[in-house]
Every structure is written in C-alpha cells, then in structure tokens.
Amino acid sequence: MSTETELKLSLPKAQIQALKTLPFWKKFASSAPETFHLGNTYFDTASRKLNQARVALRIREKNGQYFQTLKTKGESVNGLTRRGEWEWTIERPELDIEGLQKVWPESLGPLPSDALIPLFSTDFDRTCWLVEWSEPSARVEVALDYGHVRSGEASSVICELELELIEGDENALQSIADQLAEEIDLKPADKSKAERGFELLQKG
User: Fold this and answer.
1) Beta bridge partners of 117
2) pLDDT tens per residue, range 91-150
3) What burial class does residue 46 get, using C-beta atoms within 10 Å of its C-beta: 0-12 exposed, 13-18 middle, 19+ buried?
4) What pLDDT digit, counting tens, does each position of 175-192 carry?
5) What CATH number has the domain bearing residue 26?
6) Per DSSP, what are the bridge partners of residue 150?
7) For residue 51, what are the domain limits?
8) Both ends of the chain: CA-CA distance in Å?
9) Number of domains observed in the structure of the chain
10) Are 193 and 140 in contact, with CB atoms under 8 Å apart?
C-alpha cells in the first residue's frame, strides 16, 4: 500500500490555457508536460457499500493499458487529502477479484465480489508537470484534469488541478498552490471524482 497525499483545487475553464502557459513551469518543472486521456469506471454494490465506507474502486484505461485501483477512507481539509491507495495492472477492463481480495481491508468485512457493478464513469484529459520544489524540499506531480463525470444521461464538468506529493515535505503542496494562485483563480476542492459520481447517481 502507498499513502496518497494530494491537494485538489478547482479552476475556471476559461483559465486553462493561461495555466498551461505560465512562466512558472519553465522555472520549476523538470521536464516538458505530458498530456494523455484517462477513462475510468467506478464500481460498487447496488446498496453503495463501498461509498458508505468512503472507499473507491475503479478500473482506469491509459494508452491501451488497464489499471485497477482501490482507495480507502481518507481525510480531506481545504483540498488536502491523505488516503490509502493500491494500484496494479490488469489484462482487460474487468475486475480482478483475486487481486482485490489480497488488499481488501478487513474492516469492510467480506468482499462482496458477486455484487460489484459499474455505476458511473469519468473521462478527462490530463496534463502533467513534474515540479522540483526547494523550500520546503519536495518533488510534486501537478496534474490538470479537464473532462466529465457521467452517470447515465447525467454529467458534470471536471476542471481541476491536483498536486500530488511524490517525495519530500507535504507543505510544498500549499506553497506551490499559493504561487500558482497569484495568476490563476484556484479554490480548494474537497470532493473526489468518485464522490461527484455518487452525487450524480443520487440526483438520478
């Protein structure tokens, strides 16, 4: 298991291009940005057992490869989130129950393998920068996500910036955000994409 520590921020769609062309990246990014598409399907039981325990289970497609991810309950304050995360590659876009069984938290009781169904999806383009920060010292992946959360006919826009700590001092996340916020209208976003998907389900 790894611990995911990230700062999630929202921004207006109209400022996406301005963000991408900030002088900040030439100064602090260690390489050119990478842009790719991510397609994700989230699973739960019909009674939303995982969501009630604040657990997210998804299959992600990136460049023709598939990944299964389990994220456990975390805490989120002013956009800063810490939570347990397991991720591994799978051969096809179907749940790997055997692999899931190995990481399933005992606190959730028996794995409801026969009851897990796809409930909603997220599709977005991601642009990533790797930032080397000196004070406080840290390596941080900054990801700009733009796309949609979809559940049936309902959808909502994804337009957010995620700063994920790779190594170093987590206080660097806020320090980087503060500097970016001098040019871009950034606001803390405490809801994960999964939580937004479940909100769409409830509205439906």
Assistant:
1) 44
2) 999 999 999 999 998 888 999 999 999 999 999 999 999 999 999 999 999 999 999 999
3) exposed
4) 999 999 999 999 999 888
5) 2.40.320.10
6) 121, 155
7) 2-203
8) 34
9) 1
10) no
